[in-house]
């Protein structure tokens, strides 16, 4: 695939051709990301290093990365990191790769002025995964108190690492628990949940690089995609303070169903935000009482 004594530009061409031949989309981008991680520089800085001759050790490291991508592994797992809200988080196979759609969820929470006007609001992120949501919120709104919950101990380890990397290990309480086991009634001001919402049937049709590498437990939401969302809504009714907020990321076809579920559960002011493709993606609402 790549011979010894290659310059950066020669390596990139060889690796790109190889991945393109394997049917990998955006093969050039993947190779530039691998090379920039290998050379510890920004992707645009690669152009200043085009004529640099690489050692056999670095070439072999590049080969390993390219082979993993060619085998269908997501580039984020190969790199061990993913960008979210302008920051870089550690990721691995034990947690879902952060998506741009989830940035909309965080943005919606940050835009909720009534929440941030409260004195030290308690904010819980359920299904925290790598911790990107709760960490992003804690960095933007440091006056609040934060909790991140997940039923996967491996995902929580990853969240701990990310929280520590951002200096938030004392700021965010991370726990291996479900909301119903952790929170006292009427103790939380806002609950954020990016829970599995893909139906089992849809899951089976997802691209191979997702199905074979990202954790199914973080994607498969049961027959209708709501197997975890429905009980989370009922738990939120109990855990939220009067006047507390619930924010959910949902599937593109679930907007009206989830809206009905929330209304029937006693929430008010249910609103839906669409994503970049004009699909329903974020729902938020208020528990009445204030």
What is this structure's SSE topology?
Layout: H1 8-21, H2 27-38, H3 56-70, H4 75-79, E1 81-84, E2 87-90, H5 100-110, H6 113-116, E3 122-126, H7 132-140, E4 145-150, H8 153-165, E5 172-176, H9 179-182, E6 188-193, H10 200-203, H11 208-211, H12 229-239, E7 240-249, H13 255-264, E8 268-274, E9 280-286
Parallel strand pairs: 3-4, 3-6, 4-5, 6-7
Antiparallel strand pairs: 1-2, 7-9, 8-9
Helix pairs in contact: 1-2, 1-3, 2-3, 5-7
Task: Report on the architecture of this protein.
By secondary structure, the chain is α/β, with parallel strands linked by helices. It is built from 13 helices and 9 strands. The strands form 2 sheets. It has a 7-stranded mixed β-sheet, sandwiched between helices. Strands 1-2 form a two-stranded antiparallel sheet. The mean pLDDT is 94.
Mean pLDDT: 94
CATH architectural label of the largest domain? 3-Layer(aba) Sandwich
Could you say how many structural domains there are in total? Answer: 2
Strands side by side in the biggest sheet: 5-4-3-6-7-9-8
- Quick one: biggest sheet? 7 strands, mixed
- Strand proportion, as a percent range, falls in 15-25%
Specify Rg, calculated over alpha carbons.
21 Å
CATH H-level superfamily title of the largest domain: Vaccinia Virus protein VP39
Percentage of helical residues?
A: 40-55%
Distance between the termini: 65 Å
Summarize this structure briefly:
By secondary structure, the protein is α/β, with parallel strands linked by helices. 40% of the residues lie in helices and 19% in strands.
List keywords for this structure.
single chain; Rossmann fold; 13 helices; 7-stranded mixed beta sheet; alpha/beta; Helicase, Ruva Protein, domain 3; two-stranded antiparallel ribbon
């Amino acid at each position: 695939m790549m011979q010894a004594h290659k310059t950066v530009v020669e390596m990139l061409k060889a690796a790109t051709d190889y991945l393109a031949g394997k049917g990998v989309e955006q093969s050039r981008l993947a190779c530039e990301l691998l090379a920039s991680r290998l050379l510890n520089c920004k992707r645009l800085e690669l152009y200043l290093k085009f004529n640099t001759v690489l050692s056999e050790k670095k070439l072999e490291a590049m080969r390993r990365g390219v082979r993993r991508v060619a085998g269908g592994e997501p580039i984020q797992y190969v790199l061990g990191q993913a960008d979210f809200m302008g920051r870089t988080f550690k990721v691995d196979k034990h947690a879902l790769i952060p998506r741009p759609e989830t940035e909309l969820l965080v943005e919606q929470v940050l835009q909720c002025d009534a929440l941030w006007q409260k004195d030290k609001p308690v904010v819980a992120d359920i299904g925290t995964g790598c911790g990107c949501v709760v960490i992003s919120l804690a960095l933007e709104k440091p006056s609040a108190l934060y909790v991140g919950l997940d039923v996967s101990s491996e995902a929580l380890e990853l969240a701990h690492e990310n929280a520590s990397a951002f200096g938030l290990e004392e700021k965010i309480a991370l726990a291996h628990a479900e909301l119903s086991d952790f929170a006292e009634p009427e103790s939380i001001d806002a609950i954020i949940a990016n829970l599995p919402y893909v139906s089992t049937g849809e899951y089976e049709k997802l691209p191979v690089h997702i199905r074979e590498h990202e954790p199914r437990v973080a994607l498969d939401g049961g027959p209708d995609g709501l197997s975890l969302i429905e009980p989370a809504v009922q738990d939120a009714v109990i855990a939220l303070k009067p006047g507390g907020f619930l924010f959910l990321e949902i599937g593109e076809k679930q907007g009206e169903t989830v809206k009905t579920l929330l209304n029937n559960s006693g929430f008010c002011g249910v609103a839906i935000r669409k994503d970049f493709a004009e699909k329903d993606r974020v729902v938020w609402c208020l528990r009445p009482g204030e």
